[in-house]
Amino acid sequence: MKARVKWLGQDGMAFVAESGSGHALVLDGSSDAGGRNLGPRPMELVLMGLGGCSSFDVVLILKRSRQDIHDCVVEIDSERAESDPKVFTRIHLHYIVTGRNLDPGRVERAIQLSAEKYCSASIMLEKTAEITHDFEVRPVD
């Protein structure tokens, strides 16, 4: 896997990040860091990557176990160290899984399998952060 990050110039702190699969997005800093708020901060991307990695696993596991899943949202809350390097020290993932006749036990197991076996981002981040999970199951309206 490869990626490339290029600074957009001397008038700010914006960068273009390109993935090996050909996708790109703008990264930027806050105004107090010389940025113009044109895109997410790099550490926000880390959390977004964690949420994406884990959600992908949960949906795939539930589909494979023949659960009638219609939606999956993960809300992520985190805390970082006070001093540099400001690593994540605590991350909480709250899953909201919507579907028809979903088995809460299977949802819980899918989250557990993602956290302990499949989600590379989660397994990597747990080296510095306490990662916790909870979930709610919502019926289809």
From TrEMBL:
<dbReference type="InterPro" id="IPR036102">
    <property type="entry name" value="OsmC/Ohrsf"/>
</dbReference>
<dbReference type="InterPro" id="IPR003718">
    <property type="entry name" value="OsmC/Ohr_fam"/>
</dbReference>
<protein>
    <submittedName>
        <fullName>OsmC family protein</fullName>
    </submittedName>
</protein>
<dbReference type="InterPro" id="IPR015946">
    <property type="entry name" value="KH_dom-like_a/b"/>
</dbReference>
<dbReference type="Pfam" id="PF02566">
    <property type="entry name" value="OsmC"/>
</dbReference>
